[in-house]
Amino acid sequence: MTGRILVPHDGTEMSDRAxxxxxxxxxxxxxxxxxxxxxxxxxxxxSATLGFISDRTSLExxxxxxxxxxxxxxxxMLKKKIDDVRKKGVRVDFVLGVGSPADEIVKVARxxxxxxxxxxxxxxxxxxxxxxxxxxxxxVSETAxxxxxxxx
Length: 152
What we know:
Blueprint: E1 4-8, H1 13-29, E2 32-39, H2 46-50, H3 59-87, E3 92-98, H4 101-111, E4 116-120, H5 136-143, E5 148-151
Parallel strand pairs: 1-2, 1-4, 2-3, 4-5
């Protein structure tokens, strides 16, 4: 392990669990952490986008504005979490990205030279659901260059 742990965080309880576990590892190993939040720009809901459109505003500029707002909200959400990690003596940075979450997480992991990814995953229940098929955690675990720990 290179001493850098990547933790994708989307604001969910499962992400908080992954962040807690990664903080434990980083503290014990003397590793750095990088928290990443990806705004999924592929699925901007039309109803949300329409609220930003005026006669002179294009759909693309409305989408860009919505992504900017989502990134700003993510940054605010992560500030407290970053402060909490730093209080535990762990060096931590964060990265905000836009795109397909699994693909972007893997790209960020490579770019920051992460030695490990700790990611939360919700457990799908029910007989008709395909458990975790298509999930971000599954795709990250299949395409990452480093070990991936999935927290449930």
